[in-house]
């Protein structure tokens, strides 16, 4: 499929899906402007304007069909954020707790908004496209390890989609995780979460539980004389600090921090929305330690910097890597305008 036809096909498909949402809008733009993948949108009570951004491609290159399908799946995923993700509670949690908690939110929110897109019926084949995109990401980079705490957000994004009914190429690893009890709790809660604000509370509570479990384990090691050796080496050394980055959480991270407005500028979280803090919190019937309602995280003071460094939750980097194969070196110097989809005109002959 020629690159120029891919551009036209993506634009036409998204416009049809966007119109099916019933929102009024001034314009829907699909831009092929360099190396970034993401979305910028403006949503009001009765409208939703969106600008979907892709890396540039050579219009004369042959694009595989599976790549075209992944582009559509990615764009539908980003439109899902534009339709269903709210940001106020997410922003507060990221500012207070850092990038890892933001990634936990992203890992739980992605399956929720994809499920909402599927249930909306706006794109009848969206489930198959989402499933193919996820399996393409896993085929490229594999799955994560169940005991890798930095990649808990990615694990949640995969396992949450498994609960959506996707056929995933890798078996579940939740039960093999040291935090299995807490992950099951979070996934169960997120499965019935009505909005982003509830997802935020679940993510903050999950982080607190993971942190408390690790602190308890360290305390038990110290009581048993199994603490960290003074030279920082040896078998008793806890691994909590591995991969600890030195930078503070900021607004210029990668799209895994949050889905959308920043993603269009190299980031990924929607730019607006009015979450209903605390409304619709799901109940829990699990045993002691699992039955607490998620808190809003406004007093625990936990920081998540030492957990940063895992894989990106959003598939933006995957899309960028796929399209770099069909880009031109000139794109690094100057972005080329996209060819718009053709317009059909009616001529009246006299």
How would you summarize what this structure contains?
This protein has 350 residues and is mainly alpha-helical. It is built from nine helices and three strands; from the N terminus they run H-E-E-E-H-H-H-H-H-H-H-H.
What does this structure look like?
It is a single chain. The chain is mainly alpha-helical. The protein has 9 helices and 3 strands, in the order αβββαααααααα. It is globular, with a radius of gyration of 22 Å. The two termini are 39 Å apart.
Which strands sit side by side, in order, in the main sheet?
Answer: 1-3-2
Order of helical and strand elements: HEEEHHHHHHHH
What structural class do helix, strand and pairing data support?
mainly alpha
Largest β-sheet summary: 3 strands, mixed
Put simply, the count of helices is 9
Low-confidence stretches: 229-268, 270-289, 337-345
Number of individual domains: 1
Mean pLDDT equals 78
Q: Give the proportion of residues in helices.
A: 40-55%
Strand content: 5-15%
Keywords:
mainly alpha; 3-stranded mixed sheet; 350 residues
Strand and helix layout:
Elements: H1 3-20, E1 28-32, E2 38-43, E3 48-54, H2 65-84, H3 88-97, H4 99-120, H5 126-141, H6 152-163, H7 180-191, H8 196-223, H9 316-324
Parallel strand pairs: 1-3
Antiparallel strand pairs: 2-3
Helix pairs in contact: 1-2, 2-4, 2-5, 2-9, 3-4, 3-8, 4-6, 4-7, 4-8, 6-7, 7-8
């Amino acid at each position: 499929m020629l690159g120029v036809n891919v551009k036209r096909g993506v634009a036409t498909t998204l416009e049809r899906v966007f119109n099916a949402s019933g929102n009024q809008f001034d314009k829907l733009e699909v831009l092929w402007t360099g190396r970034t993948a993401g979305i910028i949108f403006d949503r009001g009570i009765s409208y939703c304007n969106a600008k979907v951004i892709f890396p540039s491609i050579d219009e004369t290159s042959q694009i595989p069909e599976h790549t075209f399908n992944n582009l559509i799946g990615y764009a539908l995923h980003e439109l899902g954020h534009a339709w269903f993700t709210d940001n106020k509670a997410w922003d507060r949690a990221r500012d207070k707790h850092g990038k890892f908690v933001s990634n936990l939110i992203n890992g739980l929110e992605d399956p929720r908004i994809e499920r909402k897109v599927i249930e909306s019926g706006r794109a009848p084949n969206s489930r198959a496209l989402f499933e193919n995109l996820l399996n393409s990401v896993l085929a490229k980079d594999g799955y994560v390890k169940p005991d890798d705490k930095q990649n808990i957000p990615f694990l949640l994004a995969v396992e949450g989609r498994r609960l959506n009914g996707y056929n995933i190429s890798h078996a579940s690893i939740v039960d093999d995780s040291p935090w299995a009890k807490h992950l099951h709790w979070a996934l169960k809660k997120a499965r019935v979460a009505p909005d982003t604000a509830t997802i935020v509370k679940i993510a903050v509570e999950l982080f607190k539980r993971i942190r408390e479990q690790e602190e308890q384990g360290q305390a038990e090691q110290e009581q048993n004389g199994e603490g960290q050796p003074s030279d920082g080496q040896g078998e008793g050394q806890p691994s909590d600090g591995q991969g600890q980055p030195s930078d503070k959480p900021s607004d210029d991270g990668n799209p895994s921090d949050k889905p959308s407005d920043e993603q269009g500028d190299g980031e990924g979280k929607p730019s607006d929305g009015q979450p209903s803090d605390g409304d619709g919190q799901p109940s829990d019937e699990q045993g002691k330690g699992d039955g607490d309602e998620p808190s809003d995280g406004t007093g625990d003071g936990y920081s998540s910097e030492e957990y940063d460094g895992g894989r990106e939750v959003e598939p933006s980097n995957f899309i960028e890597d796929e399209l770099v194969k069909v880009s031109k070196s000139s794109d690094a110097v100057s972005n080329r305008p996209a060819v718009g989809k053709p317009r059909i005109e009616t001529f009246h002959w006299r």
